[in-house]
Amino acid sequence: MPTTDGLEDIVATQSCICDLDGKLGKLSYFGIDIHDLVRNSSFEETAYLLWHGVLPTKSQLEDVAAQLCANRTIPGPVSELMQLLPKSSAPMDVLRTTVSALSSFDLDAGDNSTEANRHRSIRLNGCHHGKYVCRHYIGHRRSLRPTSWWGERTGDAYGLENW
Question: What is the model's pTM?
């Protein structure tokens, strides 16, 4: 009886958000190729697409960008936690730990309604950039100019070394 490695050729679930064709190396979200998103969409546009299933209009983009900016602040205890983590911590470990810690500050705790989940998404994504900047500062112990990097193309969003 033939076997396959891992989940090769196994359909784990159906999704209306994403289409993945591993054999052809294609990934798309709501019909938009990931490479096009990386080249042509901002972080805010891509987030909006994932939340709403369509790319935003200009006014919708301005609104979501304002909401994300309004939620950039990292709660003090989470910033303090980040300072306690070893400088050698892998970025994904820092992200996992800070997202878990942020759940303690969830204004909609216990509410799993669509609206509460939208608010939660805005708050978490709004402060992610602040977490990266904070962690970069903590890890390298050097000052960073707090210029806005919202609106950068999605593929460049993590280029902190270019500041």
Answer: 0.70
